[in-house]
Amino acid sequence: MIVVRGGTGKKPVSSERLAEYFENHVKFEGYLYLGYPLIGAIDGGYQIDALLISREHGAVVFNLIEGAYDEKIQDESYTKFESKLKLHKDLTDKRKLSVELNVPVFAPAWKGHSDSDSDYPVLLTYEDLKKFLGSITRGSSDKYEKLVSVIQSITKIRHRNKREYVKNELSRGGGKLKELEDSIANLDRHQSTAVIETVEGVQRIRGLAGSGKTIVLALKVAYLHAKNPSRKMAVTFNSRALKNQFKHLITLFTFEHINEEPDWDKIDIIHAWGSPSIRGIYYEACFNHNIEYLDFKAAEACTTAHGKGFDVACEKAFNEIKNFQQTYDVILIDEAQDFSPYFLRLCFGLLKKPKHLVYAYDELQNISNKQMPSPEELFGYDSTGSPLVSLKNTSGKAKQDIVLDGFCRKKRMFV
Q1: Which of 10, 41, 173, 200 is most deeply buried (CB count within 10 A of its CB)?
Q2: CA torsion, ordered 272, 273, 275, 279, to nearest 10 deg
Q3: Which element (helix H / strand E) includes 72?
Q4: Which fold has domain 2-152?
Q5: Reported pTM
Q6: pLDDT tens, 287-321?
Q7: Residue 301, Cβ neighbours under 10 Å: how many?
Q8: In 3D, which of 252, 271, 102, 78 has the Cα closest to residue 181?
């Protein structure tokens, strides 16, 4: 069985056709990645349209064509992907790549002629795909596990005994960074899936405490920023201590994708509440919509329930805003279990269509020990009674609901 991962990206027609073929018309095992991987290059990140990995076929890089075709695209894809694999000694033999690598074009809507026998095959139909795959079954079976490991490694960062910025392991900051890097080294396949699966809408990521959600969100910010650098993004959270962690991780991961720092004008690492002196989603929503802002003392005075002041403040703000100024293209929410539905609705209101919101939370762990509401309850209903958000995983498409297994710091699996 072929496992399909990733979103449809900028070429939805050919991506969906390719995914449908491999999910329903082949019997061998492997992975098909859509819009992945991103390869760091001197001139920025280079995105592969689609990638097949299998024992029988090695690596097959698909260039998906939904417009004009230029053979130079295949040359560039081959060169960049070969360079990526050659960084790993286990995949080379005397400076040559030791795994099968092919770079066909798949263009199901193209009006030209197919050619499955050339150095750079052009495939138009499922029959073309079948013929092409049958012609390259030389395979790289003994390298398969390593090849999968390399491709699914969403980050090359691993634990190191010495780092310039960790001068004292016993220091508070150094210890935190070492702990983060240990967690990164142990990311498993579920976490890598959560990073690259991209939904144009709402996506939920959940798991037990320690299952790597904060790291996954940082990786996801870097990945989305590399793919769409013009989009305005925000990552928000409850614990102020997370801000420096997010900045550190997003910087590292963005360097891996595009070989340069992120454009911080396009990424806000922003606290949930905020104040006149500290940026926050709630504070800026009040300021931009000219409504009353409640600080901690004022918010707590509005409720008899201890610790519910922010919930009340968000509900009041949400009900007072009649027309949202849509500030962001993407918002990612960490520690969502600590927020009321009204904070998530504020974030939802601040988003431009198609409302690309990712919220991550710890199951069985929140401030009030209550179960997390369903997406329908969190985001509410429209005037006809239909839910604004309803999550469903559909075969062949990016997952809207992802569950992370286990404890990130305890596992030692390749991603």
Answers
A1: 41
A2: 10
A3: helix 72-85
A4: Trna Endonuclease; Chain: A, domain 1 (3.40.1350)
A5: 0.84
A6: 999 999 999 999 999 998 888 999 999 999 999 99
A7: 11
A8: 252
